[in-house]
Write a structure and sequence with these properties.
single chain, 381 residues, mainly alpha, two-stranded antiparallel ribbon, 15 helices, 4 strands, globular
């Protein structure tokens, strides 16, 4: 016969174990550990086939996904990146395991969509998200210094709006269906990858487009990429890892809790690149990068401002979406559309420099983001 006392004791031990894991990752050292894991896995992905200094880049990978789905026709950046799928699904698993799956939505979704669009436009002027800026620096790309400075500047502008009462309003509890929308979409993308696999040298398989040259043609094996995405998604959901949040908290409150993960990612990626023979210092000749310093700064400044106004960097938005945040899912969809706009209308940069209409994209982006920041304040600055 079952012993109720024994069952209760077993249940109590299980809950204690779960709480121990939660406490570990919620700690300062937990965030440092997650940053270190990302800093190691990203160069490994690069070694296994991902583009140079782009073992993990949320913006670049979402751009490639937009191309794979035919939303843009830039032939060199088309691949349905499994890492992004893994980020969302790994976060979903963690949220369910630790009882943190909380479906919610309703906090200015259209504003978040627009911020996602301009965040992507800014990131593609620089050619990378905050994660890639750190990985580029760890790989020796000195152009990343301008990008990180621009990111910090954009986040700083965002903190000024936060201090003056900027808010997108409260989210509301929603049905489980709302929380599952983006994870289901990601499962659909995974099904497409399996149903329509890439054939060597063929630019299209079924409904998916594939690059046969350029960054989009460079990728680690599907199983490895997906596995890394799942691990990172799981760990980042537990630790609340966020590069924008690290800078925001440092500027606003002088808190260094999240910033430890920011630093450990760079340090471990640097060490990993040295060990793997992937470190090359300098400005010129860096992979998928350009040397127009002002536009590197300005592109990431726009992205940083959009991230700050939206409440999270692109990675954090994916992890939030995995735990049921419908507003974060809207931001993610905005970034996919922003990638399409960037390549269809000549806004994205290339290794040769800024795109023909990239400057116009930045001007409009700053104007829209500043307008959003000023008009959604609850009190006068």
């Amino acid at each position: 016969m079952n012993n109720p006392t024994r069952r209760a004791a077993g249940s109590s031990k299980k809950e204690e174990a779960i709480m121990a894991v939660k406490n570990v990752f919620a700690s300062r050292w937990g965030v440092v550990l997650v940053g270190a894991v990302i800093g190691i896995l990203a160069p490994v992905l690069q070694k296994l086939g991902n583009p140079g200094n782009m073992g993990i880049c949320v913006a670049c990978m979402e751009r490639d996904m937009a191309g794979a789905l035919g939303l843009h026709r830039a032939e060199v950046v088309q691949y349905l990146r499994p890492e992004i799928i893994g980020f969302v699904l790994g976060s979903l698993v963690a949220a369910y395991l630790f009882k943190e799956f909380r479906p919610r939505a309703g906090s200015a979704p259209i504003v978040r969509f627009v911020l996602g669009v301009f965040a992507m436009i800014g990131a593609l002027v620089f050619l990378g998200c905050p994660w890639r800026a750190m990985l580029r620096l760890a790989g020796g790309d000195a152009n990343a210094i301008l990008g990180l400075a621009g990111l910090a500047f954009g986040v700083w502008i965002g903190t000024l709006f936060l201090k003056s009462g900027y808010s997108l309003g409260r989210t509301q509890s929603a049905s489980t269906t709302v929380g599952w929308i983006l994870p289901v979409i990601m499962l659909g993308f995974l099904a497409l990858l399996l149903l329509f696999p890439q054939a060597p040298g063929v630019p299209k398989s079924g409904v998916l487009f594939y690059s046969v040259k350029g960054p989009g043609s460079m990728h680690a094996p599907l199983a490895v990429s997906l596995g890394v995405g799942l691990v990172v998604g799981f760990l980042a959901q537990r630790s609340r890892f966020c590069t924008m949040g690290a800078l925001r908290d440092l500027i606003l409150f002088r808190h260094t809790h999240l910033f430890g993960g920011f630093v450990s990612l760079i340090v471990l990626a640097f060490v990993s690149n040295i060990l793997l023979g992937q470190f090359k210092a300098g400005f010129a000749g860096q992979p998928v990068a350009h040397t127009q310093h002002f536009w590197n700064f300005a592109g990431m400044a726009l992205a940083g401002l959009a991230f700050a106004l939206a409440g999270g960097c692109p990675g954090r938005q994916l992890f939030l979406a995995g735990e049921g945040d419908g507003d974060a899912a809207v931001f993610v969809m905005g970034m996919l559309v922003g990638a399409a706009f960037s390549h269809n209308f000549g806004l994205a940069s290339s290794p040769q420099g800024i795109g023909p209409h990239g400057i116009a994209g930045l001007v409009v982006g700053f104007a829209v983001c500043l307008w959003i920041g000023f008009t959604l304040r609850k009190k006068t600055a």
